[in-house]
Amino acid sequence: MIFNVLFGLSILVSTTLRGEGATAAYDPTDVFLINCGATSDANDTSGRTWTTEDGKLVPWNLDDLSFAATSLYQDFGVSQVPFKEARIFRSEFTYKFQVSPGWKFLRLYFYPTRYGSDFSSNSSFFSVTVDGLTLLKNFNADLTVRTLKPESNYFIKEFIVTAFKTLRLTFSPSPDSLAFVNGVGIVSIPDRFYTKGGFDDKITNVDRLPLERRRTGDTVSVVNDTDTGMFRQWFSDDDFLHGRNSKIIPVVPGVKLNYTEKTPAYVAPDDVYKTYRTMGNANNPRLNLNFNLTWLFPVDAGFNYLVRLHFCETRAEVNGPNQRIFTIFIRNQIAMLEMDVIGMSGGSRIPMYLDFSVYVGSESGPRPDLRLELHPYTEAIPKYYDAILNGVEILKLINADGIAGPNPKLVKSRGDSHVLKTTEQKRVVTITLIAVGSATGLVSIIVLLTLLVRRQIKRKKNRQNNSVAMFKVLLKHYTYAEVKKITKSFSHTIGKGGFGTVYGGNLRNGRKVAVKVLTDSTGNGEDFINEIASMSQTSHVNIVSLLGFCYEGSKRAIVYEFLENGSLDQFISRKKPLTLDVTTLYGIALGVARGLEYLHNACKTRIVHFDIKPQNILLDANLCPKVSDFGLAKLCEKRESIVSLIDIRGTIGYIAPEVFSRMYGGISYKSDVYSYGMLVLEMLGARSKEVVETTASNATSAYFPDWIYNDLENGQQTWICGDEVTTEENEIARKMVLVSLGCIQPCPMDRPPMNRVVEMIEGSLDSLEIPPKPSMHISRGFVTDQSSSLHFVMARKLEELLKPLILQIFSAKYVCDDSIEKIPNNKTDFKKNLVFFFCQ
């Protein structure tokens, strides 16, 4: 959930002209370039084709909601496309784009000027939302363009959003005002491009936590990285550089970059990595010890920011580790003490990038500077006392109130080129820093020496407090009184489960949320904080986003995003026919698989869910699935649907065999794979046949996969409901069943990991074979030596004794029972034996 929506103005730290193209550009799934208000398609200056809104995006019979207009004049340097025409909105208006699931760049293009005789942008205030999430609030484009760095007559607002099938972009004029936009761009980006961390898959926390989106770079001209496939802009860092001591390194002729799997060629344009800024002073490098290479980036206060730094050594003189080492400071905190580009990347001309996270508070006003500094590190006795930086991206994270910041404040007229001056306090600080430049260098050295002594202690402390620090910044802390106000005194119950009750509510900004009030919480407050911290670090289109928490004595609650369509179990009840078609079910199954694969492999700490079932899969307005309730099993007492014997977690019917008995193997992330297979079979109706009572001698026939295998062998598919199932849908369903049968193999080592599950579901049916028929037999693979043979024989006897009872657990008959207590009274012996089975 960390990176649900990210916003950015482009800036960058690099100094290059456009170089050789990247060797492997990203091929975006979706590319929309809409020239709003235009009457015909047209190409921009880079050759890209912008299309009209046509009748689907803007129905022709809704002129009362909006109208097209043309600018009365065009400033020098402002291109005709997409800034000549605009769409003007009289009232709330929504664009609906049909997109593929995943992350997208959403770009809004604005040229504030006068359009016709009916509209002037300087009096236009409006809000923009995407799928209900506020991106801009009471926004004025004219105020924004006057304060741009670097100066420009137009600008692009860039966001990173997730979408499933439909992306809804809504413009809402403020009272007595109109809204407008010149262009809309939507471009797919690689999955987890800004969420997995840098090339080392890490996000390093600086003081508190992550981020607005900007890029800086070329001091000569704007770089449009069309060659990478993502159409970003990278600007000069000149307007953000503090001081005049730094030096620009021009493009080194003939440089060929060596991209790697960790840093693909689409991460940034060649220009970013072929040039960089250094501290200079080549003839007297010790002068570099007297100052820091510093940038000041104005950002909105009260947000977390991700700072992505790009590095690449291209000079022939620096060709090995321990030659140029420097310290990275962000917000006056040490982000990395010893930065050795070649030492980390593995060699010269190998691009790399690192991600850092920092929280920017409001102690310095609503629009403070995010300070980035580099200083030579001398303790390792490097060859050069210098520092370098190739590129910067800064991304702002959504908080509980959204991502919209305030409009900038002007202190001078538009005719003044310096319309937004530094505050008096900052001017004093700047003068002071210049006056004591040499003293600052001396202090820096002392600080570094002191930090070396405290280094080990601080590292240990950081490891202990890492999750707590991450948690405190990522999530908003609500008081219990605020939770009551959000939920209107818990008046609207939308769900109940083994972990607590879920209530509907609204935040102050009107956003709907779901509030889960935990019951029977175990552990101390630190356990709660650490577990929620782990949960808060997730960010994926198929994972429910956490927005806040309440921890007040024994009262603990978690605030989630609200999902309009509730849980999946409402759509797959065995008491009524399926209401979702096969294609939709396939999309849900694939989304859940991707969510679990993310929890298992992409999080900083691997997360095993332990309770995958339809009730814990939530669906948004587009039926995009989101896994919920991960991590809560560690925080709550096991009760109701949670089997409470011997610390076993899960819901009967979805629990893997090894969770009941170690005879089948150890508990691991493969337990989620088993539950996922059961979930998909349940979705397809493959578990809804009535189970016939059998005796112990032929109990195997009651194990529900038996009849599925019979259908597969006979070429039948009786698990799909409905008479209008096409051949294509039959093939999709067959593929889902084959993958699921592989997931429910009793032996964990026989199940595929979730990344392989995703590949199989996305792949072709022809590449899949019918998995071995599952049985509840214990594998000899777990008998490691002869001394264990007696245990194995005893286990076999126990297995024969309990097999009929185990089969009842994994059969369809009791799949919807929420607890052992709901097993019929004539199964009393079953209950007793089950307790013995758990305790073996």
Automatic annotation (TrEMBL):
The keyword Disulfide bond does not apply. It comes from Brassica carinata. ATP binds at residue 516. Pfam families: Malectin_like, PK_Tyr_Ser-Thr. Residues 488-765 form the Protein kinase domain. The chain crosses the membrane at residues 428-453. It comes from the Eukaryota. This is Protein kinase domain-containing protein. It is found in: Membrane.
